[in-house]
Design a protein that fits this description.
Length: about 625
């Protein structure tokens, strides 16, 4: 009997212990339904389980607890690793919104949802505040009308009761109402629903770098950009580069964030003008701060002062630091900076007196020509004076083109570059873009034997395979008719559709491979002998294709296609085909590229008897 009681007691203790363990697993979820804090729930549970957990454990019980804790920690670790990996994948998928305007359009839809959530929040808060105002009016009226004769008022038991009741519960309910928190929580939940589709910090930095790229290539004035205008100074006069149909001015906080991105990269050439404009706008607003802003006048002054110091402009750094101390007189770091700047000025030998020096780039040798060609946007005056250039209706001696010849414009002879007008219809262009949108990924460039993303190519692209009766197959047939080349895979690569991003561009490059280790040779059909590029959209400004060594550029012509040979007839690369995609200033640029390879063209594009040709 004694053994039976001991056995029953041990079983009961084990059941109680298991129950405590299960409650330990569940305690974080209970508070969600009770409205109480997790800490309160756990404290109460500890008290109820104390008689179990305080008792001495047997070896079996200790082993059970250890096994339970190890298993729980393993599961917790796996969950954490899963969440971290999920965030990494989300960051990879959505952290490049700035590289394609198609993703920027999706961001507009996300913000519309946020506007709806904010409208609901404002309505709910308005109702809550209306109730608070009603309570305030009720109590104020009582004190104005009823409680002036306090002795008579408290003598009435009804008045006394309502006063006590109001002070005991009504004020409590108003002051400690959780309605405001519920409204705020609903707004936060709505934000979290669309948070995965919102821009990341990489997008903000990429968009800021895009603005700086446009500033450089098109020589734009930051003061004009802040007013929503694209202007540059030519011969001492401010001129409009373009007048976009839609534009917005930038705030002091907007300019501050662009300047801060440059500042964090130690790019003081760009940080100085943007931070100067930020300071000007903050000063004009009287230093007023908006809750949605990240920057303030003090922060802009601080960053601008140090940027001036790093460029050797110590006197400006000192002046701005004094202004900053006016707003924050006890800032010890700024006080030390002022002391340092004053000593440098007295010594008359400030360090690093280099002024504003533009950062180097990967195409430094051709930068001046590239930017000049981009700024002319295809309107070079000498371009139209060459009598060897012409326009015609081109049939390529093919029966299929006799009734409907291609409208051809020969743009250049060396290298041979041709423009075909109205190569695609509006419907075909839209179909190609629609097919490409789901597969858009960050564009890559050759990096040795592999491919990688690069800052000198800002766009997203997708590859479309041809299938029987598809729009891609029809385009392949049309390209083959006009060029006379075999464009079927693998003699031609699949159609690549590209959408450019904010300030989207592709710096000077060759389409043909310049190294035997290039991924271009993976098809085992030789090098890229020719390029056929179709303009699927128009742009308001920018986006020209600039041929650097040939010294001309071609503007974006909607529905047209441009063709050129990448290789000489002897198979050597034509260095005159070095070209670039100028940054898109205003507009949404879409192109489709068809790269045609050497093999398969033996009878279509014959070698010359001259080995040098």
């Amino acid at each position: 009997m004694r053994k039976s009681r001991e056995h029953r007691k041990a079983v009961e203790q084990e059941e109680q212990l298991n129950g405590a363990q299960i409650r330990f697993q569940r305690f974080t979820r209970r508070s969600k339904h009770t409205g109480r804090s997790q800490e309160d729930d756990w404290k109460e549970q500890i008290k109820s389980d104390a008689h179990v957990l305080m008792q001495p454990y047997t070896k079996m019980e200790v082993r059970t607890l250890l096994i339970f804790e190890v298993r729980w920690l393993k599961r917790f670790t796996y969950i954490c690793l899963y969440l971290i990996w999920t965030l990494v994948l989300i960051g990879r998928c959505w952290g490049e919104m700035f590289t394609s305007l198609q993703n920027v359009k999706q961001a507009i839809r996300s913000e519309r949802k946020l506007i709806d959530y904010l409208r609901t929040y404002i309505d709910q808060e308005s109702e809550r505040l209306q109730d608070v105002r009603r309570f305030y009016a009720k109590v104020s009226d009582l004190h104005t009308e009823l409680y002036e004769e306090s002795a008579a008022a408290v003598g009435n038991p009804l008045v006394a009761f309502t006063l006590i009741k109001r002070l005991h519960s009504e004020w409590l309910n108003v002051v400690y109402s959780n309605e405001a928190e519920r409204n705020a929580e609903a707004l936060r939940s709505g934000y979290e629903e669309v948070q995965a589709d919102l821009p990341r910090v990489e997008d903000l930095r990429g968009a800021a770098r895009g603005l700086m790229r446009l500033q450089d290539v098109y020589a734009l004035q930051v003061s004009g950009l802040s007013r929503g205008r694209f202007q540059r100074v030519t011969n001492g006069e401010v001129m409009n580069v373009c007048l976009p149909a839609v534009s917005v001015p930038l705030s002091g906080d907007d300019c501050f964030l662009v300047g801060k991105v440059a500042y964090e990269q130690e790019d003081y050439y760009h940080s100085v003008p943007w931070l100067q404009e930020s300071v000007r706008l903050f000063r004009g607003a009287g230093g007023r701060w908006n809750p949605e802003d990240e920057g303030t006048l003090e922060l802009a002054l601080d960053h601008l002062a140090f940027s001036h110091f790093k460029t050797g402009n110590v006197s400006s750094a000192l002046s701005l630091s004094h202004e900053l101390l006016h707003h924050d007189p006890m800032n010890g770091r700024v006080l030390q900076n002022v002391e340092k700047y004053e000593k440098l000025l007295v010594a008359a030998s400030p360090p690093n007196v280099n002024g504003l020096k533009r950062p180097a780039c990967t195409y430094l040798r051709t930068r001046e020509t590239f930017e000049r060609l981009c700024q002319t946007q295809g309107s070079q005056p000498t371009f139209f004076k060459n009598p060897s250039l012409f326009c015609d209706y081109f049939t390529n001696n093919h029966p299929a083109l006799l009734l409907r010849p291609a409208r051809r414009e020969v743009l250049n002879l060396h290298p041979f570059v041709v423009l075909y007008l109205d190569f695609v219809t509006d419907a075909e262009a839209e179909d190609i873009k629609r097919l490409a949108k789901p597969g858009l990924r960050r564009s890559v460039v050759a990096a040795g034997e592999k491919q990688a993303t690069a800052d000198y190519r800002i766009s997203k692209s997708a590859w479309l395979k041809d299938s029987a009766g598809s729009i891609v197959e029809k385009l392949d047939q049309r390209i083959s008719l006009i060029t006379g080349l075999n464009v079927k895979h693998p003699h031609g690569e699949y159609l690549q559709v590209v959408n450019y991003g904010i300030g989207g561009h592709y710096e000077p490059h060759f389409d043909h491979a310049t190294s035997l280790s290039s991924p271009v040779f993976k098809l085992e059909t030789g090098n890229r002998v020719a390029t056929f590029m179709i303009y699927l959209s128009s742009v308001e400004a920018g986006g020209s294709t600039a041929f650097i060594y040939a010294n001309f550029s071609v503007p974006v012509v909607e529905k047209a296609a441009i063709f050129w040979w990448n290789l000489h007839r002897n198979g050597q690369g034509d260095e005159d085909t070095l070209h670039a995609g100028c940054p898109v200033l205003v507009g949404d640029k879409w192109v489709a590229n068809k790269w045609i390879h050497e093999y398969g063209q033996e009878f279509q594009h014959r070698c010359s008897l001259n080995p040098e040709e």
